[in-house]
């Protein structure tokens, strides 16, 4: 599925650029195309919905092997980057040294600074992947914490639990319908409750329609039922419109085009398929999880140093910032992939194979004992 591997790489690169662009003194029209990082994360959720259903099928819907595989996939890199982000959080950010960044700039929202008063609980919530379960009134901004990008990991784990509990070969359509209903409930909740009771974007129902589209995509790959996929797509587009207007339509439409390129459904998508299958994007796809997590703390550390070096010179800052803010996260991601992510995945596969082999041996011995007796 090289198109979707390339899509993963393109999404991670776009998120990295969207975190880099606001720190450059440039016209608004030039920065506007790179201001849709949330849409890129929403496409990640759709992709996850498809991949996780296929993964559950690969594990024959056995919960323990599935969760173990997910833990080896997510936690080694997350723990390494999260520890670095906690250390970087102690460094002061001097926006006065970057006078071109206005008080209302989104750049000030990208880099968190200062330890929260409830730092111990914040760290514990992130380690347990529970930081997306609290409304703002109960625990303000806990979903962001020390590592902003980690908010989506809580959403992912909420999805894993629901999918693990309810996904079965004969329940796939019900599961899709369930996530669409969750999305409807979220929209109604947001519309009829005070602001303090609104949940963050890391709360699963707020992203339910994207996971539903991913699940429908997995079913499309299985039986090529385009009518069912089209019906789910229409429902998802309607829910996205109700949730945020035309801007929210980007993610499902981009996903549908990329899925069409993967399936070679339309000839006019051949150029897009060729781009997504290109070596650079597929390679970025292989390090995309590392890149998604590490780009913000890496850029934050780099920006603090360059701001002090540039001494308020926005031209010098931009000349150094633009290339280094791209190359440093990519280099670190490659290193994390080689030293942590890939070995952890290999270890996880070998551990599961040993467990599977041990279980098979035990079953055979039990059978022999039963036959003997």
Written overview of the protein:
By secondary structure, the protein is an all-alpha fold. The chain has one domain (2-372). Helix content is 71%, strand content 0%. The chain is built from 15 helices and no strands. The chain has helices at residues 2-20, 28-31, 37-58, 63-88, 107-110, 119-127, 151-166, 172-192, 208-223, 226-244, 250-262, 270-276, 279-286, 288-310, 314-372. Helix 1 crosses helix 13 and helix 4 (63-88) packs antiparallel against helix 7 (151-166). The chain is globular and about 65 Å long. The protein starts with a helix and ends with a helix.
Task: Indicate the topology.
Blueprint: H1 2-20, H2 28-31, H3 37-58, H4 63-88, H5 107-110, H6 119-127, H7 151-166, H8 172-192, H9 208-223, H10 226-244, H11 250-262, H12 270-276, H13 279-286, H14 288-310, H15 314-372
List keywords for this structure.
373 residues, mainly alpha
Major sheet size, sense and barrel closure = none
What structural class do the secondary elements suggest?
mainly alpha
Could you name the ranges where pLDDT drops below 50 across 5 or more consecutive residues?
none
% residues in beta strands: under 5%
Estimate nothing, just give the exact number of structural domains.
Answer: 1
DSSP summary: helix tally: 15
Order of helix and strand elements from N to C terminus: HHHHHHHHHHHHHHH
Query: How many strands in all?
Result: 0
What sort of overall outline do the alpha carbons produce when their principal axes are compared?
globular
The residue-averaged pLDDT reads 91
From the N-terminal CA to the C-terminal CA, the straight-line distance is: 50 Å
**Helical residues, percent:** over 70%
| Gyration radius, rounded | 22 Å
């Amino acid at each position: 599925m090289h198109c979707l591997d390339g899509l993963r790489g393109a999404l991670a690169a776009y998120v990295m650029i969207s975190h880099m662009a606001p720190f450059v003194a440039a016209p608004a029209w030039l920065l506007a195309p790179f201001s849709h990082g949330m849409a890129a994360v929403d496409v990640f959720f759709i992709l996850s919905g498809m991949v996780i259903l296929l993964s559950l099928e690969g594990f024959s819907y056995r919960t323990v092997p599935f969760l173990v595989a997910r833990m080896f996939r997510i936690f080694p890199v997350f723990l390494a980057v999260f520890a670095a982000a906690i250390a970087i959080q102690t460094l002061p950010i001097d926006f006065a040294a970057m006078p071109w960044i206005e008080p209302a700039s989104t750049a000030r929202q990208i880099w968190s600074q200062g330890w929260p008063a409830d730092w111990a609980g914040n760290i514990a919530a992130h380690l347990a992947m529970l930081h997306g379960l609290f409304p703002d009134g109960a625990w303000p901004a806990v979903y962001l914490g020390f590592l902003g990008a980690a908010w989506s990991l809580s959403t992912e784990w909420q999805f894993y639990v629901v999918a693990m509990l309810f996904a079965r070969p004969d329940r796939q359509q019900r599961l899709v319908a369930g996530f669409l209903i969750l999305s409807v409930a979220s929209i109604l909740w947001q519309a009829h409750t005070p602001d303090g009771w609104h949940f963050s974007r890391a709360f699963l129902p707020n992203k339910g329609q994207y996971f539903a589209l991913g699940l429908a995509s997995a079913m499309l790959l299985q039986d090529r039922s385009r009518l069912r996929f089209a019906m789910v797509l229409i429902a998802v587009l309607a829910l996205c419109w109700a949730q945020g207007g035309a801007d929210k339509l980007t993610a499902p439409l981009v996903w549908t085009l990329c899925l069409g390129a993967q399936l070679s459904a339309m000839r006019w998508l051949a150029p897009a398929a060729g781009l997504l299958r290109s070596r650079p994007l597929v390679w970025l796809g292989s390090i995309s999880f590392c890149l998604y997590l590490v780009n913000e703390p890496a850029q934050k550390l780099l920006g603090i140093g360059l701001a002090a070096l540039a001494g308020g010179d926005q031209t010098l800052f931009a000349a150094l910032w633009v290339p280094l803010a791209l190359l440093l996260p990519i280099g670190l991601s490659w290193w994390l992939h080689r030293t942590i992510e890939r070995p952890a995945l290999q270890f996880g596969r070998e551990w599961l194979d040993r467990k599977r082999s041990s279980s098979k041996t035990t079953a055979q011995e039990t059978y022999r004992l039963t036959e003997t007796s």
